[in-house]
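Before a colleague's protein record goes any further, I have to sign it off. Thanks in advance; the entry in question is below:
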Amino acid sequence: MEKLPDFLLNRGLALPRKIQSTKSYLNFKPTSASSLINFFNYHFRRMKLTVIVLLVQLEFTFTSFVIPAARVEECKPTGLRVSIPDIKGIKLFSFHGKINEIFNKKEIGTISANIVKPVNNRWTFYDPNINLRQTDILYYWLEIVYFDGKHNTTYTSPFKQHVVNLNNPLPSNRTFKRESNSTCKLGVTQVNLRRVCSGKLILNENFDQRNRHLWLYEYRFSGKPDYEFVGYTPFRSDILGVSGDAFIIRPPIGSAQISTRTKWSFKYGKIEIRAKLPEGDWIYPELFLNPANEVYGPGYASGQIRIAFVEGNRATNYILQGGCILGSNKAGRNYLMRSTRKNNAWSASFHVFSVKWHPGIIQVMVDNMVYANIFPPKEGFVKYADYLNLENVEKWRNGSPLAPFDKEMYVTLGVGVGGQSFEDRRAKPWRNDDPRAQKRFYEAKAQWSKTWTNSTLFVDYVKIWAL
């Protein structure tokens, strides 16, 4: 095995100056390479081949639940009411409808709502503002969440249609009392494959404590597509910690990264992160949205949305970037990234970094200022495949024009160092096409280590709202 350079055996780099605040933060900070290497060597020495036999008791639940027939009622002077009888076990009733427009698939209707409780022994959708005309055709489908005593199961009805008859409309106020909290307007956002109410705060993380039900603490070597010069470990208190009410990650080199991968994902919404970014040569924050299932292919073939990216180097720390990654090559990384500049370093203080992710546009913001509007072309981002020399993107044609950014994504927070995220330049100690890039980086430790005096990423909160 190749002998490690002496500088890899030195003790950790200096910790950042303490931030005087009564509030605590999630913090991420890189630490020394020797600690990381010893940690992984210990881990691999202890690896054994283990065979585990699990005896699993399988439970099969058979239910006779059938969605009851819906009653569709036209109201006067305007309005539409659709209802089903209350049956024990129903927990949610969702209505999706279109007027004179056929559904192509089980999608959100132009008329839709979630009903969370029955009224007068019926689960009722009611909108007094719908203006129907004689012989209009209402196309609709229903979705029911039913509890059988052990499990919640979602049922969907076949597509239905109803021809409007205004000869005997019902009065709008007929024995129906609408409750203010009984309905919500379904928006375009979904969480873990379920649609949610528009405007709802769907994630509110203030880091009062470590929430292992939401966050996965990454434990791995880095690799494709960025090949950053770190290994991620959650087991070092000098790298990853909660201080008061916030999260702190300190970064050859061990760093830390947490994500909601496998635990929580969403599609479309507004995400807001209040954070103080790390400073130091070749350090960068990882405030990303990554694809939950890589439907379109591995790595950047399924896209990445960058909420905030700032190089820690003093010469470039005043440039904030945000936007979308289409591929791992230079053109794919840069084409949909946008930037804004300020007179001093972005790492000097806390800022609120935001992305509004909508089916037709991705907006990038900082401190409530929009600095980028990214629109897909009519043909979709796949239009740029040849121009940007993108690979493995044919599957984008199967999605919407926003593909690959039309599938659920999860939140990633962390600190990266080096790798492919920095373009080649004179002052950079490695080249991205050099197979010994990491070694070249370590050989320049005398230059970059002295700049790592404020290398901590502080995250105050993460909030996400449904659209």
Observations:
- The mean pLDDT is 79.
